[in-house]
Amino acid sequence: ATIIMDADKQLTALFVPSYTITVSASEGGTVDPYGAVSKQFGTRVTLSPIPTPGYVFTGWSGANAGELDFASSLVIDGAKAVHASFAPATFTLTITTTNGKEASVTFTYGSNTLVNLPATLVSGLAAEGYTFARWSGPDANLLSTPTKPENTLLLSRDARLHLNFAAALPL
User: Which of 46, 128, 29 is nearest to 84 (CA)?
Assistant: First the structure.
């Protein structure tokens, strides 16, 4: 501001202190803003955790983590330090059967895992006198070849598959 001094005037300077908020993150992501950031007293700062592909944000820690509100923001009233934690995403593959052994098999894998479903897994789930017929279920389209017992799929989300068995033909 420019003040023209054409007479005696009384001026008061008001200084607002600035404080440093230090934001760090574990492997698997970052935060916006990140690092040591200077903010004025009374400023509300919103922290946005940003996971890298294959990771999920798991929470806040650090000396001031308890001050973060539901919107991941805090008010600057002194120096602050918070840490964002990330972990590899995990997905569940569930396999159920028809005309096989009563089974619901669940596996947990990391994100973007190429899952091999060997023929031995399939034959191990077949009831006596039954043989593989086909894969089905809401996620059968993820399989490389749903008409063959051995398969692979790239797991990037939870998936459900169903193994169908048919009575074996007599020899």
Answer: 29
